[in-house]
Amino acid sequence: MASVRDRQPNAGGNRADGVHGRPVQDETRSVRLGDDCARHVARGLHDHCGLEKVLSPDPNVGFISHALKYGDAIAASKLLAPAKIAGEMRRIVFNDYIDATLAAVFVLVVVATVIYGLISIRKALGNPQPTAMEIGLAGAAVGGRHA
Known about the structure:
The protein has helices at residues 36-47, 50-55, 63-75, 86-126; strands at residues 3-8, 27-32. By secondary structure, the chain is mostly helical.
């Protein structure tokens, strides 16, 4: 069973850290999967997923919903902060769509990397022979000297 260390505030004093003014956290407890704290950690990881930035209906979070909000304001001839002119509003919408596209592409790269890694692990575990290959001195120049 996997465990995660969770920081708990010191039960003995509520003393504040001199630099940040927050309570010092110096006691830990183990968090087991299935625990409420483990669910909180998993929920926090989900909330910061790249697709959340692309597809969230909240304009403060999602690129596309933000672009739609500004696009609606452009259609109604309104200016929303921080834009001062209509050209800046169009630039914000354009940039939001670029950001959404890049975030989606990066999520696809991460997913492809994980899938490729899992396929490689499965192939390596299924092969009775060692699958690691040494390539020697990768940076050696002709004559055995390093470049």
